[in-house]
Amino acid sequence: MLVREVKDVTITIMETEVRQLIQELHDSPGRVMVATAGAGTQALAWLLGVAGASRTLLEALIPYEETSFNAFLGQAPKKYVSPNTARLMAGRAVTRAQQLCQGDVEVIGLACTATIITDRPKRGEHRAHVASWTRNGVTCYSLHLSKGARDRYGEEEVVSRLMLNALAKAYGIDTRISLPLLDSDRYSYIEDDFVGAVDHLYQENAEVCIIRADGSLQKGINPKAMLSGAFNPLHSGHLRLAETAAEILDQEVIFELTAVNADKPSLEKTEILHRLLQFAGRYLVVVSNAPTFVAKARLFPGTTFVTGYDTAERILQPRFYADSQDQMLSALAEIRERGCCFLVASRTNSQGIFHDASGLSVPEGYRDLFKIIPAGRFRHDISSTELRTDE
């Protein structure tokens, strides 16, 4: 970075390597939403300083004040400057990018949360955490700067350069700009590969892929309550149902994206990765290859499965059990033996007919498996099919 002092005005001249990388970014397909707090605004200035920024940058947000930060994140984080918070910010950014983009456009969420030199002494380390989130995975970079070794402009430049390099990697660009680190600085990064995790679902020995709200991959889970679906798209009805069920059960309700469905074609890997973006930065999601609820009960014993009336109705139809009433009853018996049950919400079908869940036709001896959410407690008539039709 070249800095020229003219009286009391500081003029920053963009270096050639920075300009060249940004031009590469502008010339590459893909759109990014950036959220940065504490540092990283120079990276935004650089991006906007090269012609063609509208091809790259969808939106930028600087949630500097605590209220703004919490509103963007959807929660007050345990620590404002931490890898987890940067990852959650990137997740919120990529979901926002997906909402803003139309069609099959690769979207990226780029986030930075940092604490660097300010006008008052700081007791803690000067540090920055930068995260990028794409449908292929999350990469989080952590940088701890030597305290007192640079002025604010120097620390801001290092963080902004790191952000541009993180964005280049997210775009799949090989070019990197120099990162002026000192021997006493500490720098590290960690990657979570969604592609590899989803690939395992297509192997016989892998049945689930678990992605936490911050994009980190989890190996095992024992949910108390689960809402399964195709989530095409995830909408307010799903979210409200999960909230209502959590209140009734006094348990967290997690989402399960079903890769293999009993009455629909299996999802392609690219489609799974696309739908997972909807949960980024907000919710833990499980992807499974269990097509039926008896298969889910084997994977998740002791779980309450939260469903709508239409799903519960299909669970009770012999056509999903080789047209055998006996096989259906056997499946219900196994679900009970594994400690699982259903919590069912009423809903309106595609013909506009309201179905009260209390009217489900449940075989004798299995009524206890189906607990009902009163219609007065929850009713939400939006369906994913209707939302797709309206687009």
Question: Could you walk me through the main structural features you see in this protein, from its secondary elements to its overall organization?
Answer:
By secondary structure, the chain is α/β, with parallel strands linked by helices. The protein is elongated, with a radius of gyration of 25 Å. The protein has helices at 16-26, 41-49, 66-73, 83-100, 152-171, 194-199, 236-249, 269-276, 293-299, 309-315, 325-337, 384-390, and strands spanning 2-6, 9-13, 31-37, 57-61, 107-115, 126-134, 137-145, 186-193, 208-211, 217-218, 225-229, 253-258, 285-288, 304-308, 341-345, 347-348, 354-355, 370-373. The protein is 33% helix and 25% strand. The strands form 4 sheets. The chain has an 8-stranded mixed beta sheet. It has a 6-stranded mixed beta sheet with strand order 4-3-5-6-7-8. It has a two-stranded antiparallel sheet with strand order 1-2. The chain folds into 2 domains: 2-192, Alpha-Beta Complex (Maf protein); 207-390, HUPs (Rossmann fold).
Q: What is the average per-residue confidence, as pLDDT, rounded to a whole number? A: 91
Shape: elongated
The first-to-last residue Cα distance is: 46 Å
Q: And the CATH topology of the largest domain?
A: Maf protein
Main CATH class of the largest domain: Alpha Beta
| Gyration radius, in Å | 25 Å
Helical percent range? Answer: 25-40%
Assess the beta-strand content as a share of residues: 15-25%
- Report the uncertain regions: 1-11, 387-391
CATH superfamily of the largest domain, please? CinA-like
Q: Count structural domains.
A: 2
* Lateral arrangement of strands in the main beta sheet: 10-9-13-12-11-14-15-18
Helix/strand order: EEHEHEHHEEEHEHEEEHEHEHEHHEEEEH
Biggest sheet statistics? 8 strands, mixed
Structural class based on helices, strands and sheet pairing: alpha/beta
Number of strands: 18
Please tell me the CATH architecture of the largest domain by its name.
Alpha-Beta Complex
Number of helices: 12
